[in-house]
Write a structure and sequence with these properties.
Four Helix Bundle (Hemerythrin (Met), subunit A); elongated; 80% helix; 5 helices
């Protein structure tokens, strides 16, 4: 009977991992479509090339990369039984995620508007609208990632993760890394096509 329960648990764990990867693949397809629309739109005569990339985008890129490092360190600490260090590192990851969102908001609504570019209205442009859309959609996924981080944090505090049982921690960290890699891709796209 114990063997059957173990086999059932393996099936459930595999199904959870597959759901994560199906979700990631569908998000990749969504952003691939957005990327294609962005690249095609660059051929428009009204496409802007003279705006300054928000400094907040650069800083937020560093912040989200740092958060990916801290979530790796948190996962390793928790698995090896260093609960306090894991708690601190998960807290830092969460704070870095929130800082990323604040920086994205600042980049779109403060830095670009101070250059005279707006998302809507008579002084808007398709370029700035795309930047807003890219940042907004990515921030929506970062918010989902923050919810995942909070869930990981609560489960960690409840003692759900051990050296033998940490699937939720792994899935959450994988999603957070995906959000990180996605932003790096989007940032590089914006930077090289500016």
């Amino acid at each position: 009977m114990d063997y059957t329960q173990g086999g059932e648990k393996l099936k459930q764990d595999r199904a959870k991992k597959q759901m994560l990867w199906f979700g990631i693949i569908s998000l990749c397809m969504t952003f691939a479509g957005l990327t294609s629309a962005y690249i095609v739109s660059m051929e428009r005569r009204d496409w802007l090339h003279n705006y300054e990339l928000p400094q907040a985008f650069v800083i937020s890129t560093v912040v989200i990369v740092m958060s990916s490092v801290t979530v790796i360190l948190a996962k390793n600490a928790i698995i090896s039984g260093k609960r306090t260090i894991g708690t601190i590192l998960l807290s830092i990851t969460l704070l870095l995620g929130i800082a990323f969102i604040i920086l994205q908001y600042d980049g779109i609504f403060n830095e670009l508007t101070s250059q005279g570019y707006y998302v809507t209205g008579p002084s808007s442009s398709i370029t700035i609208t795309f930047l807003f859309l890219i940042a907004f959609l990515h921030v929506a996924h970062v918010i989902a990632g923050i919810i995942v981080l909070i869930t990981m944090f609560v489960n960690h505090l409840r003692g759900k993760y051990t050296k033998d049982e940490y699937l939720g921690l792994s899935i959450g960290a994988t999603f957070w890394h995906f959000v990180d890699i996605l932003w790096i891709f989007l940032f590089v796209l914006i930077y090289i096509t500016k």
